[in-house]
Amino acid sequence: xxxxxxxxxxxxxxxxxxxxxxxxxxxxxxxxxxxxxxxxxxxxxxxxxxxxxxxxxxxxxxxxxxxxxxxxxxxxxxxxxxxxxxxxxxxxxxxxxxxxxxxxxxxxxxxxxxxxxxxxxxxxxxxxxxxxxxxxxxxxxxxxxxxxxxxxxxxxxxxxxxxxxxxxxxxxxxxxxxxxxxxxxxxxxxxxxxxxxxxxxxxxxxxxxxxxxxxxxxxxxxxxxxxxxxxxxxxxxxxxxxxxxxxxxxxxxxxxxxxxxxxxxxxxxxxxxxxxxxxxxxxxxxxxxxxxxxxxxxxxxxxxxxxxxxxxxxxxxxxxxxxxxxxxxxxx
Length: 332
Prior knowledge:
By secondary structure, this protein is α/β, with parallel strands linked by helices.
């Protein structure tokens, strides 16, 4: 969807959670017959895959790391990811990045998939799939290549482009469960989900008594790009103990007006760090932008930074909740 950036430092709890993926015994994909059909529910419809994919191609960091978190590197032919991904030495799934081919530092294309001899594509609407460039599940189907749509990005029918059909963490757990079923790593998926839920519950148990109002700032000067109720920031914020001031927007990522931000007067602003404009540049803009001068978060300089990968559907969402939760407790 947008360009990712370098990973944030790992929390000890997250390291413990990932222990099974960092050298300990990991569930191996089951040896299903290549002709075994698996039916999943994806974006509200039943999809049957005739065989277990062996050369998966993914788009973007969050989607790619869902595969890595399940230990499915050997099933991958490559991934596409913008070239400002950043330093990879500190990421949880360094071995996956070392092992799997980086196909493109731009948006994924049909040519990338064909060149990699991909037999299954995992992407999302605005996370690779786009109508305007012809890279869609239907276009891949015509080439004989099945695909799977990231659940956070499922279109909800409110408009032609609005996205999101369930709470963001439910979307994360749905995709992990579906991937586990398709690739025969159900136990690994269940263990990850259970660990994530435990981590999130621990943060919620420490939530401040009064929930601070939080605004997610992605980008934009004339009008801010932000998160509605169906993108990951909605529950990164709420499970951390805050309230997303754009909760009433039935969309994932969308643009609003500054007047709405001023009217809703957030106590905290969370910056999504990615791309050519640094988090510090975004912070300076927000703190100096005239219309925001009386907003509580700006007056008290309560600005917190999370990485792009923390704020799109990814296995790093629970760690982001823990980090933001700690900050909200400090300022509440």
